[in-house]
Amino acid sequence: MFSVTVRDHMMIAHSFHGEVFGPAQRLHGATYVVDATFRRPTLDEDNIVVDIGRAAEELRVVLSELTYRNLDDEPGFKGVNTSTEALAQVVADRLADRVRAGALGEGGRELAGLVVTLHESHIAWATYERSL
Amino acid sequence: MFSVTVRDHMMIAHSFHGEVFGPAQRLHGATYVVDATFRRPTLDEDNIVVDIGRAAEELRVVLSELTYRNLDDEPGFKGVNTSTEALAQVVADRLADRVRAGALGEGGRELAGLVVTLHESHIAWATYERSL
Amino acid sequence: MFSVTVRDHMMIAHSFHGEVFGPAQRLHGATYVVDATFRRPTLDEDNIVVDIGRAAEELRVVLSELTYRNLDDEPGFKGVNTSTEALAQVVADRLADRVRAGALGEGGRELAGLVVTLHESHIAWATYERSL
Amino acid sequence: MFSVTVRDHMMIAHSFHGEVFGPAQRLHGATYVVDATFRRPTLDEDNIVVDIGRAAEELRVVLSELTYRNLDDEPGFKGVNTSTEALAQVVADRLADRVRAGALGEGGRELAGLVVTLHESHIAWATYERSL
Amino acid sequence: MFSVTVRDHMMIAHSFHGEVFGPAQRLHGATYVVDATFRRPTLDEDNIVVDIGRAAEELRVVLSELTYRNLDDEPGFKGVNTSTEALAQVVADRLADRVRAGALGEGGRELAGLVVTLHESHIAWATYERSL
Amino acid sequence: MFSVTVRDHMMIAHSFHGEVFGPAQRLHGATYVVDATFRRPTLDEDNIVVDIGRAAEELRVVLSELTYRNLDDEPGFKGVNTSTEALAQVVADRLADRVRAGALGEGGRELAGLVVTLHESHIAWATYERSL
After folding, report:
1. ipTM over 0.95 threshold
2. Chain C neighbours among D 93-122 (CB < 8 Å)?
3. Alpha-carbon distance E30 to D79, whole Å?
4. Alpha helices in E66-132, H assignment, sequence order
5. E91-101 confidence digits (pLDDT tens)
6. Subunit contact F124:C1, Cβ cutoff 8 A
7. H helices within chain B, ranges in order?
């Protein structure tokens, strides 16, 4: 199995609901350094999994809809705890939608899966992986 | 599949038995930067895999029983080569025991697996993964 | 010259005033990974610059007054752009106050200077350095 | 499952064929920081997956045949796009050949798989994994 | 003293002249992860050293004139050993030219100095610092 | 001012004397990831500060006299607290002796200074800098 990973980041504000979150129930924020991994069992005719430039551009587009925002105010996240792991799924699912819509070309349709990791600090990160 | 990872470290002395270890047969030491990954197929009602604060605290407790010690003098490691990979299993198994005992709450019992990585330097690390 | 550095982090929300900031004028957030460096021309009688454990604890205390907050709502930051470089100075000055008040013991009074770096992402960070 | 990973690097020149590569069609170069992971379901009699020193030496030998070269001039890569993911496979396959030839000793024959990751920058890397 | 640092990268081919370089006399290549630090004794009216977005853009422009090239073929480097430290100076001097030409606005003219670090691998890097 | 930095590591056991050290008074250990920086105001005739390969070799030699040892048993450290900052000075001074003895060639005698950083974990490091 082959994979290619590209890294970017987003900077958001949010708060959490539930006693388990302690002080993170207050409005605060995070930089998420985001790694998106594209998996494919074989290489394409150019000998690549996916063009790294295009993959990076797709990740940038997905993150641009989230970054520099207060997620508590986003209609799509009303009443939702936007935990690191939940946001990893949001990023992965949006990337999957774009791949299926052809954003990575025909070759993108050969991808087997996606893995998205969000690093919230130097000591904590979360991952969501899914098939395509 | 979702996962959450927390990072901590321990600083131990030890020596190895066996010619394969060369100069590492002498008493020496290591800082192990330890990553503990908790895996779960779905998120809980708070939209998380596990509370990152509690996960970090459990890892801290497990490492506190190992750090600042000469492992050659620990009864549990008599005659055992405490290699990086062997210690990864020790940390993972002790975390698993705590999870099963309820240290991460009822939700912790939904965890599917654990992965523990010990970084012994910037150029070498070892991992042990197990189900729960 | 000797120095010792300890690393910790904080997670805050804020917004900026001024066209130069573009989308960062919206309420958003950041994880700041914070490195605090303590400088001293000679070592003390224990052969150290400062006890790493105590230095880490002082940094933790300073960051605990900032983390998990919306800085726009903090009285001390009313009308202030809490840029990465400005926050580096805030952390350094508060650490300096604590050192002068004796939080690092008598030896802390021998420190020559402080350097504080805040990493806002994997591709941007800011530093403030000052004497003591 | 256990694994041990060692890190090394190589510095090569190459160019790519195909419009998808844009400016990377020109002769350019890369430092690849290479992580080679050796996987094994159980530890050997020395309580290790593989001797880290020997694993590092085998990786060094494989990389020494690639580093400080223009890959466009290497007979084995004539007409081949030496993308990061393709080179990950080259390194993994050459390591696999050496392991099967006994370079890691008899214990090396118990290895279940290899994973090789090539980091081409701080924001992009590629991986190839295979069984042994 | 305040500073702001931004990180980007370039990927080039080159060769060196001189026996000291050993195998690096052959045509090979490197990814340089480049950190550009802008220093200023006080903050401007927006409470910043320099806008991080503009600083990143200026660094990108400077690197775009070097990346994806064989430096041996560039007229400006004829007969010059483009070592990591020499390239750090090239990047710093070109950034300095742009700052003095006003690329960072009037505030950019208040900058006191620049530091440029080029990382050629995980185990080697070089720095050039200069005043402005 | 130019500088070149090379990274290596050592793995040692030791214990500390003094209540300030708490549990670190017990025999324990550390991996020190060591960065050695060589500073020079101008480049030599090969357009370098120092050959990176030779610098790395000199660092390796200095660390080989410390690694895989219990520093408590080394005659040179009898009764000495081998703190991270104190060891940074030991490494820097031994490198300086070698440079002055000509280990880096005649050009090495043009070096202006050395900076040595020892990383004891992902959250703590210490530095010693000196002139040459």
Report:
1. yes
2. 122
3. 22
4. 84-100, 105-108
5. 999 999 999 99
6. no
7. 52-64, 84-100, 105-108
